[in-house]
Predict the structure.
Amino acid sequence: MATTTDDPLATLATHALGFVRDGDVVGLGSGRAASAFVRALAARVRDGLRVRGVPTSEETARMARELGIDLVGLEAEIALTVDGADEVDGKLNLIKGYGGALVRERIVAAASLRQVILITSDKLVDVLGGRGPLPVEVMPFAAPFCRRRLEDLELKPTLRMQEERPFVTDNFNVIFDCAVGPIEDPAGLEQAIRRIPGVIDTGLFLGTAERIIVADGDAIRELARRRR
C-alpha cells in the first residue's frame, strides 16, 4: 500500500496515472475525484505525455480544454475511463449520478476497454442505497408520469433542483433522486425502472468497474473485479 498526501483525491489521481500509457485515449469522468485526475493528467501532458480525452460532461470538457488536454469523440477507441462514484459495494457495483452526468458516464464507460473508479473509503457500502439516493434521469415531457411510476415502486422520487429551478442535465433532461434505502436486488430494480417509458437511465452501474482505487486513511488500496 502507498502512503497518501493530505489531499486524498490528489493521491488517488496520481495513483490512477499508473494505468495510462503514452498514446492512450482516456475517458474523463465527472465530479471531484475525476476532476483531480484531469488536473493530474494535464500535468503529465505538459511534461510530454501524449493522450487524448473523451469527456463525460460539458464541465469536464471545459476543464480539460483549459488545461491543455486534446479531446476527441466516441469515434476513438478508449483505453480506459477514470471516474468517481457515490457508492461502491463489495461486488464493485456502483451508484453514480450525484453530479448529474450519469448518462454520458455510462456511454463512455461502455465504450472503454477498462473503467477505473476513484473513491475515498466513506463511499464503500455493504449494500447499495445505504448511503444516499438513487438518481434517475428522465425526459422532461415524461416527468409527471415517471414520478408516478417511481412512486408505484416505492422509491420516493424528489425532483432535483438548482437555484429554485429543476436541475437540467447536459442532455436537457431532469433527474429524480429516489430514496431507495438498501437495495436488495439492484439488477431487478434497474430493470423495473428502465421499463418505465421516459426513463433515460439510472445511477446503478452494475458490473462496469474493473478496478476501484480507494483512499483509506493514510493509504491507497485497490479492489479488482474477480474474473470468471
Observations:
- The first helix runs from residue 8 to 16.
- The chain has a mean pLDDT of 95.
- The CA atoms of residues 128 and 183 lie 6 Å apart.
- The chain has six helices and 17 strands.
